[in-house]
Design goal:
heterodimer; A: alpha+beta; 22 strands; 23% strand; B: 5-stranded mixed sheet
């Protein structure tokens, strides 16, 4: 699988989520009782977990999973936030950021998260109170451990010196409390040491010591030309030195100092140590990939919107100009207007393309995710993707990832039945999840269909009753569709166990809210024992579309070109009537014939007295129907305008557009006409 | 003295009404409307208001007063309430006046066939001139439109 394609998306998204968690944590620190903030953090962490698991960054996923567990307790008010927990969460966040940074730089995003994970686990189990004391102690020993730690290079220098028979010492020098010029004293020590040997490592680093970033004590590994007592004498001769502790280093103690850096020593559980190790692990991790960030720029969608709006205005004026030029009939004016029309249609393509991306970039990360999921759950699942080339507005593609992850996880976790059940039910061992995308009119449909056990009506009702979503007396009257819609109710989750995959109620309600915020709709169909299908309908949210303008008496309507199969003229005698419904022959099938003037109760036109009618054949997915109109005006680029908040949910009208003469024409939504 | 209130005065079926000036966007002459199918009868259609599509309703129809053909005096007052922008067809609009909010009284149950809930109050202007102040939030209440539709359907 080509990873780079969606790696940059992952990076952008995870950065955003990390930032959100950070901001929210800070806010929560000020208002520790605000559960709403905890919810937000939880959702960010949840999404991050899903994304990292999908991308195969397991350390990221496992750390976020533990954070989630802590947050889950907090939001259910089983755990009170306190400084220690905040510290722990912030520390986790630092780790996450480091890992993401590593991924950006082409690393593998691996890090040793065991210490922080166990710290989080101890919070969940409630053990952390006992551990506070222990940790404090560990910090102390850890600090000294830290100063003794050597890297690969220092180790090899020292070990060669020992082999060559040189004296190697570890010195711990303490400066007196009342010393005013600690850095100067330290410098004098370094100076004296350099005259008598070679300093291999100092802790803190020399720079830090020079800037006085240390606290009385510092330590040094050195190869000495003089023996231990002489060295001690030299150092103690420097004024304001409280004590010096010199340990000779031999091969064995050197090994110990080196081994110390291996993560194999879990008893040094201090966060400082863990951090250092993470940093080392990062440096050590292979950087075979070139940096991936910076190949794309992220432009605020608002700027694109502004560009689009300005362009729409231009387009309306262009149409007007074309009309005027047609009336004035001056050659040079006509030529100029024609040129302008060409340039602006080029420009329109560019502006549109800026916003349109194939949904592939979202779909591509799913096969891996489904595979891993199926493995975890011990199920066999095939993911069949169709229509990945379907293009959608960038805003929608950016936002649709999370809801689709939820729906797919849902399908694999709750939808597909375990292998044993499938065999018992006479179904193939391997379950199939279909992920389809197809455009239809001004919308794109995304369907997620599994051939699993279907939705258990009784179980859904029972949960809804238990959670107070519905009343007992409502339950019996509800149709299956209504019951299935309950799945989208807030705080609803039918999973018996909390699993890593889905559950916890961060699920379908969030999916629904998200999709609706994109101007879309989500619905669910299910047949018990046969499977479940989630359908998501999304608007293209394009502000400019190609449309066919048609006339009905004095009224003009626009039909999106993307929904039109063809146009034709139909003689009256070729209209058939089947069960009172008008039908017509169309390429060896019979399709319904709809009268637009009747549907819209048009006062100024009726095709009843026409010998021949113009028809527009429209489609929604696979379904086809014909619309009778009075006359075709022609094809045009139109600017999509909303009808405003006052007029909503109007039958078969998806919006309006302004024509060249300033008149408003309504845009027909063919999807509403085909059932 | 209460607060000073600037009000646009318009007429509808021989009564004088007022809306606060800060809710009014523009006042337009009558212009061709694009009919929107399957909407309540008082929704007359939409107009193009400098690039923005704005729905227009007939206030007579909204208040169940007999509708009349538009005249030269007819105006479309576009008002903005919340995030809605709607044009109101009125018989004429010709005045802006200052009102003292103290002079506004509670509306009686019904004025000129309009129920009290659509009214903010009644202001006395001089001896025999009464100004009915509209409660635009209620006039443009969408919930009620839905109920109306259900009733009609």
């Amino acid at each position: 699988m080509e990873v780079n394609q969606y790696l940059s998306m992952f990076i952008d998204e995870s950065k955003e989520h990390l930032q959100a968690i950070n901001d929210n944590l800070l806010q929560l620190e000020n208002q520790p009782d605000d559960i709403g903030i905890v919810h937000d953090i939880f959702r960010s962490a949840h999404t991050l977990k899903g994304m990292s698991a999908t991308m195969g960054f397991e350390d990221l996923a496992s750390l976020t999973h533990e954070m989630e567990n802590v947050l889950d307790l907090v939001r259910n008010r089983k755990l009170q936030m306190e400084p220690l927990i905040f510290d722990c969460l912030f520390k986790s966040l630092d780790h996450l950021e480091m890992m993401v940074q590593d991924i950006i730089e082409g690393g593998t995003g691996k890090a040793d998260v065991a210490p922080i994970v166990s710290a989080l686990k101890s919070i969940v189990s409630g053990d952390y109170r006992k551990e506070v004391a222990a940790t404090a102690e560990a910090v102390k020993t850890g600090a000294s451990d830290d100063s003794r730690r050597l890297d690969e290079f220092q180790y090899s220098v020292l070990s060669q010196s020992i082999e060559a028979g040189n004296k190697v010492f570890f010195l711990e020098v303490k400066i007196r409390d009342d010393s005013v010029l600690k850095a100067a004293r330290a410098y004098m020590v370094f100076d004296a040491l350099e005259q008598n040997g070679e300093i291999v490592k100092s802790n803190p680093s020399v720079q830090d010591i020079e800037q006085e970033k240390f606290d009385k004590v510092f330590s040094v590994y050195m190869i000495s030309r003089v023996d231990q007592p002489t060295l001690e004498q030299i150092i103690m001769n420097i004024s304001e030195i409280e004590s010096v502790n010199i340990t000779p280093i031999d091969r064995q103690s050197l090994e110990e100092a080196k081994n110390d850096q291996r993560p194999a020593a879990p008893e040094s559980q201090t966060e400082a140590a863990a951090e250092l190790r993470t940093a080392k692990a990062q440096q050590g991790s292979s950087r075979q990939n070139a940096p991936v960030a910076g190949r794309t720029i992220r432009v605020d969608i608002e700027r694109l919107d502004t560009l689009m709006n300005l362009f729409s205005e231009l387009l309306i004026d262009r149409v007007r100009l074309e009309q005027l030029a047609g009336e004035i009939r001056r050659v040079d004016l006509t030529e100029t207007v024609e040129h302008m029309a060409r340039v602006s249609s080029e420009m329109q393509n560019v502006v549109l393309k800026l916003r349109m991306v194939p949904i592939e970039s979202v779909f591509n990360r799913f096969p891996r995710m489904v595979r891993d999921l199926a493995k975890t759950l011990d199920k066999k699942v095939d993911l069949v993707i169709t229509g990945a080339e379907t293009e959608l507005d960038r805003t929608v593609v950016d936002e649709i990832g999370d809801p689709l992850v939820h729906l797919l996880r849902n399908a694999v976790d709750h939808g597909i039945d375990p292998v044993a059940d499938r065999i018992a039910a006479g179904k193939p061992e391997t379950g199939t999840v279909h992920l389809r995308a197809f455009p239809s009119g001004n919308h794109v449909f995304i369907e997620i269909e599994d051939d699993g056990k279907g939705i258990n009506r009784e179980k859904v009702l029972a949960t809804a009753l238990k959670n107070g979503v519905i009343h007992a007396d409502q339950a019996d009257k509800m149709t299956d569709t209504e019951v299935y819609q309950l799945l989208f109710a807030s705080g609803f989750s039918t999973a018996d166990k909390i699993s890593d995959i889905s559950g916890r109620g961060v699920g379908l309600d969030v999916v629904k809210t998200k999709i609706e915020s994109l101007g879309g709709q989500v619905s669910v169909e299910s047949r018990p024992g046969l499977g479940t299908k989630f359908s998501v309908r999304l608007p293209l949210t394009l502000s400019i579309i190609s449309a066919m303008l048609v006339k009905l008496g004095s009224e003009k309507y626009a039909i999106p070109l993307s929904s039109i199969v063809e146009t034709a003229i139909l003689r009256k005698e070729r209209i058939r009537t089947v069960h009172g419904i008008r039908m017509m022959d169309f390429r060896n099938t019979i399709i319904p014939l709809l009268s637009l003037s009747e549907l819209f109760e048009c006062p100024s036109y009726s095709e009843a007295d026409e010998e021949e009618t113009e028809i527009v054949v429209i489609r929604k997915g696979e379904k086809i129907a014909a619309l009778m109109v009075e006359e075709f005006i022609g094809q045009q680029e139109i600017v999509l305008k909303s009808l405003g908040k006052y007029l909503t949910n109007i039958f078969a009208i998806s919006g309006a557009t302004i024509l060249g003469d300033g008149q408003v024409a309504l845009i027909i939504d063919p999807n509403a006409l085909i059932k | 003295m209460g607060e000073e209130l600037k009000v646009i005065v318009f007429t509808l079926a021989d009564e004088e009404y007022g809306v606060e000036v800060d809710k009014v966007r523009t006042i337009e002459r009558m212009q061709p409307l694009t009919r929107v199918p399957k909407t309540p009868a008082f929704v007359k259609g939409v107009i193009n208001l400098r690039g923005v599509v704005v729905p227009v309703i007939d206030l007579r129809g909204r208040f169940n007063v007999a509708e009349s053909e538009p005249t030269d005096n007819s105006r479309i007052i576009t008002v903005a309430v919340g995030d809605m922008e709607v044009g109101l067809i009125v018989d004429s609009a010709n005045d802006v006046i200052d009102l003292d909010s103290d002079s506004i009284e509670e509306p009686p149950e019904i004025v000129g066939g309009i129920r009290a809930k659509y009214l903010r109050g009644i202001a006395k202007l001089g001896e025999n001139r009464l100004l009915v102040l509209l409660n635009l939030e209620e006039v443009l209440n969408k919930q009620e439109i839905i109920e109306l539709e259900n009733f009609e359907g």
